[in-house]
Amino acid sequence: MQAAFQRTDRKEIDDVMERKNKPGKMNVKKGEAPGSGIRLNRFIASSGVCSRREADELILKGLISVNGKVVKELGYRISSNDEIKFRNRKLSPEKKVYILMNKPKDFVTTTSDPHAEKTVMDLIGDKAGVRLYPVGRLDKNTTGVLLLTNDGELAKKLTHPRYQRKKVYHVFLDRDVTRTDLETLVTGIDLEGELVAADSAAYAAGDDKSQVGIEIHSGQNHVIKRMFESLGYKVKKLDRVYFAGLTKRNLPRGRWRYLTDKEISMLKRGAF
């Protein structure tokens, strides 16, 4: 299957998308209104075979058939009665799965990495029964709350900057943090020409001022470490304790569990 996922020339896809977006005749089945049904690439992705972009590549390569006919048209829409096959294997939508993990140190947040000794997927194995993806990333040495799912639409909303999902980290520093620097974290720090600010910052362990709790929405890579380093501190340990309404309460390090119906509903409503 991996061979099917080799990158198709992006110009070919862009050219096809440009032609598709020009006014013209669109495939509409008898009894359906124009624009009804779902896009073929979305259906393929929902079946767990691959991502939407990879689905576009499979379509262009002629590896997808609808009701026995090969379809190479990007943007093609299907109905609930259509039979979709990938290399003669019938596809059907996967049940959506949502898993909360308390990520341990030294595990890479990826589905696969030939250079990584351990990935978060190793902790789940095939127990979920579906192909899962981490929502966002935690550095190899960062621990804490990590969501994994096969719900691509929800994952996109939880990670896109415009949705402003709340994240809270417990930061362990190499020395005491001054009150002035706490305030600077909130007023903003210039990181390579961009002003980045925490939503709030406070001491996290009473009299121990080397531990700080920081709430932030920015999704920049290594943003917390970079913010503290710019102030002259070294982050010794970083633990995410909250993400989009989810916490690691009662979940030991390295363990995972399925989200409850209430938690799933909360994520989808955006009530956090």
Describe the model.
This protein has 272 residues and is an alpha+beta fold. The chain has 2 domains: 2-90, Structural Genomics Hypothetical 15.5 Kd Protein In mrcA-pckA Intergenic Region, Chain A (Roll); 98-269, Pseudouridine synthase, CATH 3.30.2350. The protein has helices spanning 10-21, 40-46, 52-60, 120-124, 152-159, 179-187, 223-230, 261-269; strands at residues 38-39, 64-66, 69-70, 77-78, 84-86, 89-90, 98-103, 133-134, 143-149, 167-173, 189-191, 194-196, 200-205, 208-216, 235-243, 246-247, 256-258. Strands 7, 8, 9, 10, 13, 14, 15, 16 and 17 form a 9-stranded mixed beta sheet that branches. A 4-stranded antiparallel beta sheet has the order 3-2-5-6, with no helix packed on it. A hairpin with a 2-residue loop joins strand 15 (235-243) and strand 16 (246-247). Helix 2 crosses helix 3 (52-60). The longest helix is centred in the first third of the chain and has 12 residues, at 10-21. The model is unreliable at 1-26 and 28-35 (pLDDT under 50).
List the helices and strands and how they pair.
Elements: H1 10-21, E1 38-39, H2 40-46, H3 52-60, E2 64-66, E3 69-70, E4 77-78, E5 84-86, E6 89-90, E7 98-103, H4 120-124, E8 133-134, E9 143-149, H5 152-159, E10 167-173, H6 179-187, E11 189-191, E12 194-196, E13 200-205, E14 208-216, H7 223-230, E15 235-243, E16 246-247, E17 256-258, H8 261-269
Parallel strand pairs: 9-15
Antiparallel strand pairs: 1-4, 2-3, 2-5, 5-6, 7-9, 7-17, 8-9, 10-14, 10-15, 11-12, 13-14, 15-16
Helix pairs in contact: 2-3
